[in-house]
Amino acid sequence: MKSSWKGRLFALATVLIWGMTFAASQILVNCLDSYWFIVLRFGCAWLLLFLLSPKPLKPMAWGRERWVVLCGILGVTLYYILQNIALLHSTASNTGVLSATSPIFTALWLCLVRREVRLKPLFFLGFVLCMAGVAVISFRGGGEGGVHLFGDTMALLAALSWGLYCVFISRTEGTGLSALQMTRKILFWGFLLCLPFALAAGDAGSIRAFAGGGLKLWGAFLYVVIGASVAAYVCWGKATTLLGSVTTSLYMYLLPVFTVIGSALLVQDPVTPFTFLGIAAILAGVALSQRGSAAIEEQASRAVSATEK
């Protein structure tokens, strides 16, 4: 029970940080090339993690290392390339809202990867409630939301990539590495695999424009590096270990809630009765989905145990 509460606190802390990251990232991608933004962001994050835990990390046997590589591809390289494209062609609000669909992709991927796992009706009922709340927050009172087809599609593909990352991150357990060290390995692979995209298609000249930017740009960059790329990834890894991939992923439904709160506090976006209605629906949906996900996690654990025997 104690570990369950710790896991929930880690998951909430992660989503709180990430929920306020979309606006900061949008400020940055409007100035800094998307590919070089990812390279600089995760290069600096890896360096910070190395300074916190400078122990050399040798490659593991390929049977284990491949899951780390896949997590780097899905949870860093692919996810953030798609998200940054979405931020260029849609709003931070829409991108944050569509990121909240990742839990259903986690559950669906889990069913595909481990065929013994079956989804329960309660999970879908919670999903419907959450998405209703997401829609209410996104289009609260006819705000600036709206549909941006290309950008919103990229955000949805990013959510799909993150859903698969949540499935594979559980396969990195049992390596003897701490959450901080495992995060360091994942960020290294994500950084390394994004570098060719930056060199081939990125605009290196934008780095100079960014370097000469003001306090607002550097504040946003430090937030996404220290908060969203280091602290949040470590907390997410701990939450996944304690709660399981499906249950942890459900907290992504709360992203729009924290995005709205952060916007209200930091940039004085209006909060309407629709906002509170949406938040209530999301919280109720998370509670229902968590009850439905317990059976999914149990099935997944049995599937893994059977595979390892």
Number of helices: 14
Class computed from helices, strands and strand pairing:
mainly alpha
Task: Report the major sheet.
Answer: none
Question: Low-confidence parts, pLDDT < 50 over ≥5 residues?
Answer: 300-309
Number of strands: 0
Q: Round the Cα radius of gyration to an integer and report it.
A: 19 Å
Roughly what fraction of the amino acids lie in strands? Answer: under 5%
For the record, give the distance between the C-alpha atoms at the N and C termini, rounded to a whole number. 28 Å
H-E order: HHHHHHHHHHHHHH
- Overall geometry: globular
Helical percentage? over 70%
Mean pLDDT reading: 81
Describe it for me?
The chain has 309 residues and is mainly α. Helices cover 79% and strands 0% of the residues. The protein contains 14 helices and no strands. Helix 2 crosses helix 5. It is globular, with a radius of gyration of 19 Å. The two termini are 28 Å apart. The model is unreliable at 300-309 (pLDDT under 50).
